[in-house]
Amino acid sequence: MNRLLSILFVLALVALVACGGSDEGAGTSDDAERPTYRVGIDITFPPFEFEEDGEYKGIDIDVIRAIGEEEGFDVEIQPMEFKTIIPSLLSGQLDIGMGGMSITEERKEKVDFSEPYYDSHLTMVVAEDNDDITSPDDLEGKTVTGKKGTTGGLYAEEIAEKMNAELRLFDSSPDMFQEVANGNSDVFFEDEPVIAYGIKQNPDYGLKIVGEPLNDTKAGIAVKKGNSELLEKINSGLQKIKDNGTYDEIIETYVGN
User: Fold this and answer.
1) How many domains would you assign to the chain?
2) Spatial distance between the Cα atoms of 5 and 254, rounded to a whole number of angstroms
3) What order do you get walking across the sheet with 55-57 strand by strand?
4) pTM, entire model
């Protein structure tokens, strides 16, 4: 009887050691506690975000991933139309919203923003051979285009009403490029880095920037209002990647000369 108990004890000890070994191979407790945040982006918005060879790339993608590395969290990229990002934050379907999102008073009533991570401005684009339009004052009776849910789209709506112009709104920036390139609209409004990148990548479109900057905007990273813990992580990580040079490397990759 004593021999049987000894054998059973040894077998139990071996099983316990084996279980301990398998737990270690599955990862440490630190790995299990590393959170994953859902990040909503608009992949039709290069150089901030776009899809290339089946991968998501761009300033926003690299910035939020770098912040995650500094602050100990992973990100799950969820592409969607820009106009749905804030509603998805409000409904809890997202943890973080990006998309070169301008920090505006109207948006600040709905979501909380990080410190700005990119300074930009709204500009006007026309066909290369169009010398008649050099400022918004030249848009009387013209056809103007903007992107739904963006500052450029809001500006297009305002100028269309003010100048008695026809308004056309689209869901993506590439659609606006095509609209003006094909001669279906006279002008569209978009953030300067998006325009510069688009013209550089598509010289055959025959487009140019005209006029003075229409505003000064700062892009921020949005979270659901009151999510101070996540916002603190984002701000902390953003400062770290600015201090260690990672941020400058990211910007140089996408908008450097």
Assistant:
1) 2
2) 69
3) 44-45, 49-52, 55-57
4) 0.73
